[in-house]
Request: fold
Amino acid sequence: MKRSVLIAAISLLATVGIIGWSQHSPAPLPEGTLADRVVVKKAAHALELYRGAELIRSYQVSLGRESRGPKQREGDGRTPEGKYTLDYRKGDSSFHRALHISYPSSKERAAANAQGVGPGGAVMIHGTKNGLGFLGHLHTLVDWTNGCIAVTNFEIEEIWRVVPDGTPIIIEP
Reply:
């Protein structure tokens, strides 16, 4: 009996800890904060916001389900690599808010066309699928997107606020 009570108590504490971690968010960046560059480090699963040389915030991300290597064609499940622009925002996405990445470049489009495939598109930084915001950071335990970069809903709200359209984004391997 004592052993089953101990196991139940440990399970409850672990569950509470996981829920607490999944919902934790740092204090929001101050009003008026603006980033002038976004860097995604795929190997580290990190999205970083910069103002000049100063790192102002870093977020853990989920990537395309095939996170190794650059996106080469539609449906490959990879996140692109290279220099792009966050060129517009989509508030009515099927994910919680979305910032569009200017993939594919003309060079990437030509390379895909030469292989007889489409390059893909609609690559975004976004929150979780609508209705699944309660997952919080749990979504970062696996790469699950079709090539996008996913953060928590709280984080996309902050990124949406501090990253203006036209901001450069560098996606590193």
